């Protein structure tokens, strides 16, 4: 495994990102897309926001999120226009032992995230040896297997279907969730997400609630509030225009839901950022 402290901004390295190795990619407003090869990759957003495109899939990675991308398909990375951040990538060597992993986007967890943070800190600080990085990759693969085993145990409690059917439903629901995350500004509906999952709306509602822990409508509302919080922090868009763009009926609806979620109104949140 090769080690790199940094690659230049997305789209500006002297050579394309390597298929194997551990490195940081910097993204900014002027950054152009970069493409990862078809090896297995672990990708985590250290800070900022990034969009990953793999075939027909679009993934949104925000600070602390990570994704395991299986071998077989190149992935294009694009930083969000208003966000400058860092993306940490670990690419498996051709000889690395791989498996059938759930390739969904995850929030920070107790399985994989600590290992990614540990390796990133060592690479960033110039303290990681090649052997340590290879051992960390093995630990990442084992942690991912444990993570997926815990997921399958939880799925086993949801119904009496065969394990293969449960895995398929989980993957389909996660695809729909990724679509809802990445297309939040385009006002997706539960019906749109059900189409992504290739399920009837009623069946999608039931499986989504069981697997994610909340209804599609509530999940979409929380994602829109999260997007509103991000745009209030990163842009100067007016609150009325922001509410309209995210599908809230009026600014007062956004203000009431935002206060319920975060304890302050959008105006108070923005004023607090200005005073900090």
Summarize this entry quickly.
The protein contains 9 helices and 10 strands. With 276 residues, it is of the alpha+beta class. The protein has a 6-stranded mixed β-sheet with strand order 1-2-9-4-7-10, covered by helices on one side. A 4-stranded antiparallel β-sheet has the order 3-8-5-6.
Q: Could you walk me through the main structural features you see in this protein, from its secondary elements to its overall organization?
A:
By secondary structure, the chain is α+β, with helices and mostly antiparallel strands. It has 3 domains: 7-156, Jelly Rolls (Sandwich), CATH 2.60.120.280; 163-213; 218-275, Homeodomain-like (Arc Repressor Mutant, subunit A, Orthogonal Bundle). It has helices spanning 113-124, 130-156, 163-182, 190-196, 201-212, 216-234, 239-245, 251-262, 266-275, and strands at 7-9, 21-27, 34-36, 41-47, 49-54, 57-62, 66-69, 75-79, 85-91, 105-106. The strands form 2 sheets. It has a 6-stranded mixed beta sheet with strand order 1-2-9-4-7-10, covered by helices on one side. A 4-stranded antiparallel beta sheet has the order 3-8-5-6. The model has no long low-confidence stretch (mean pLDDT 83).
Walk me through the topology.
Layout: E1 7-9, E2 21-27, E3 34-36, E4 41-47, E5 49-54, E6 57-62, E7 66-69, E8 75-79, E9 85-91, E10 105-106, H1 113-124, H2 130-156, H3 163-182, H4 190-196, H5 201-212, H6 216-234, H7 239-245, H8 251-262, H9 266-275
Parallel strand pairs: 1-2
Antiparallel strand pairs: 2-9, 3-8, 4-7, 4-9, 5-6, 5-8, 7-10
Helix pairs in contact: 3-4, 4-5, 6-8, 6-9
